[in-house]
Amino acid sequence: MRPMGVERQQLPEDARGPSPDVRRAGTERGGIDRRGIERRGIDRIPVEERTSTPGTFFVIFVGTSVGLGAVAFGWVGITFGLGLWSTISAIAIGTAVGQILLVPLILIGSRTATNNATASGATFGVRGRFIGSAIGLGTCLVSVALTVWTSGSAGLAVASRLFGLPESPASYTGAYALITAIAVAVAIWGYRWLVRSTAILAVSGGILLILMPVAFAADIEWDYAGGEYLLGTFWPTWLSVAATVGVAGALVVCTILGDWSRYIRSDRYPARKLVPVASAGIFVGFVVPATVGAVVSTAFTDPFAPFTVSLAGESPSWYTVVLLPLAVLGGVGLTASSLYSAGLDLDAVVVRLTRPRATVIIGVVAVALVYVGLLAPNVQESISAALLVLAELSAPWAVIVGIWFVQARGRFHADDLQVFNRGQTGGRYWYTGGWRIPAVLAWAAGAIAGLLTIQTPLFGGPLADIANGVDVSLLAASAVAALVYVLLTVRAAPPAEDGDRGSRPQG
């Protein structure tokens, strides 16, 4: 048995010269142009640029999770009617369950030197990878909209309290635009800037986050029992929080993990070194800020009032001063990383579009979504519903990619993943016109099963009550996708072992 990883003759480290995309961009050194902007898109990262470590991955996820958007997820559990410890347990257990599906997706980037959506072409076909790109675009847009909304609203509320700035539509417009503009600039400059900025945020934002419960210590109700359950009884509500905030929160990043791990060499940092550190970063990044949010929410006069409004209005004066940079800079970190990932996803769909231009387009669309979202009668419930719908699409995708990873024993022919980007056809992953039909059908079946059984605060699927009020939609989506995929591919040879070994220009 050959060792797991990219096959030796296909290693990015063996590539001669820059990829076609990089040559076209006119870079001078290391994929960086004269202005210091990263020109790498979804092309493979050369070995000399793959200098990141598992620790870098950890810092990125923790650094992008210290903003108020991540903290507000803990408040969501409280608004569902759960008590403090029930909320924390639901988020922690849900995140841990979601992380099981993420293990192969952590490794894919380091073994292909490209992002996960492009690497999923091995599973779905080089055109079928558009499924992953579309899911990634959707999740990143929702993440950006949520972060800009929470950070901008909190920042303006704090500025109003400190400096008397009016909380008018024009002020909100300016706050949202400011955060997005700074985040777009960081995302355009690229990976190295993101690493530097998130390292700073991980330390400074972490300190400000720790100070938050200290500021509200006198009013925190550690025995807070909750209120009226959103779904009528405890367990359906607890499972809904576990699915909405925990599992769905983890699955939000399933398509973007490769954006960071593609800069980590698999020969230097194999699975036993990368997976534990990366998993710890994801867990800490999701659970710790949400826990702080849940704890602080119990100290508010009205725990069900909008989180950012209560936080800005009820903070002690000394903490209000430090809350302003947390609101703005924390929002910039998560927004920038989401914009960077969304830019790569759009670059994967529209291959003629450069990553910086794709990032600007996504930034404009995201701000528009924020303004549209503000028209919704209940923003919190709308965001929860959107995240759950995206999770129903993400779960079967992640399961199928994970099964393929096991079937192929973690091996990729990385060069054949770039066929579509070069305007060619053929290669091992061309399958049927660029689509791998069994994988696409299995994903569609899983997604339909999930949407039929989904339960959200706004609506439920036709089969939402199939388990007596318990939300089994993510389980149904994952199980159906896995079953259909295995049945359709049980007799097939591992995809990495056969197929056309050449590629041809299109036309």
Automatic annotation (TrEMBL):
<dbReference type="GO" id="GO:0022857">
    <property type="term" value="F:transmembrane transporter activity"/>
</dbReference>
<keyword id="KW-1133">Transmembrane helix</keyword>
<feature type="transmembrane region" description="Helical">
    <location>
        <begin position="358"/>
        <end position="377"/>
    </location>
</feature>
<feature type="region of interest" description="Disordered">
    <location>
        <begin position="1"/>
        <end position="35"/>
    </location>
</feature>
<feature type="transmembrane region" description="Helical">
    <location>
        <begin position="170"/>
        <end position="191"/>
    </location>
</feature>
<feature type="transmembrane region" description="Helical">
    <location>
        <begin position="238"/>
        <end position="257"/>
    </location>
</feature>
<dbReference type="InterPro" id="IPR026030">
    <property type="entry name" value="Pur-cyt_permease_Fcy2/21/22"/>
</dbReference>
<feature type="transmembrane region" description="Helical">
    <location>
        <begin position="383"/>
        <end position="408"/>
    </location>
</feature>
<keyword id="KW-0813">Transport</keyword>
<keyword id="KW-0472">Membrane</keyword>
<keyword id="KW-0812">Transmembrane</keyword>
<feature type="transmembrane region" description="Helical">
    <location>
        <begin position="130"/>
        <end position="150"/>
    </location>
</feature>
<feature type="transmembrane region" description="Helical">
    <location>
        <begin position="198"/>
        <end position="218"/>
    </location>
</feature>
<feature type="transmembrane region" description="Helical">
    <location>
        <begin position="474"/>
        <end position="494"/>
    </location>
</feature>
<dbReference type="Pfam" id="PF02133">
    <property type="entry name" value="Transp_cyt_pur"/>
</dbReference>
<dbReference type="InterPro" id="IPR001248">
    <property type="entry name" value="Pur-cyt_permease"/>
</dbReference>
<feature type="transmembrane region" description="Helical">
    <location>
        <begin position="317"/>
        <end position="337"/>
    </location>
</feature>
<protein>
    <submittedName>
        <fullName>Purine-cytosine permease-like protein</fullName>
    </submittedName>
</protein>
<feature type="transmembrane region" description="Helical">
    <location>
        <begin position="429"/>
        <end position="454"/>
    </location>
</feature>
<feature type="transmembrane region" description="Helical">
    <location>
        <begin position="84"/>
        <end position="109"/>
    </location>
</feature>
<feature type="transmembrane region" description="Helical">
    <location>
        <begin position="277"/>
        <end position="297"/>
    </location>
</feature>
<feature type="transmembrane region" description="Helical">
    <location>
        <begin position="57"/>
        <end position="78"/>
    </location>
</feature>
<feature type="compositionally biased region" description="Basic and acidic residues">
    <location>
        <begin position="10"/>
        <end position="35"/>
    </location>
</feature>
<dbReference type="GO" id="GO:0005886">
    <property type="term" value="C:plasma membrane"/>
</dbReference>
<comment type="similarity">
    <text>Belongs to the purine-cytosine permease (2.A.39) family.</text>
</comment>
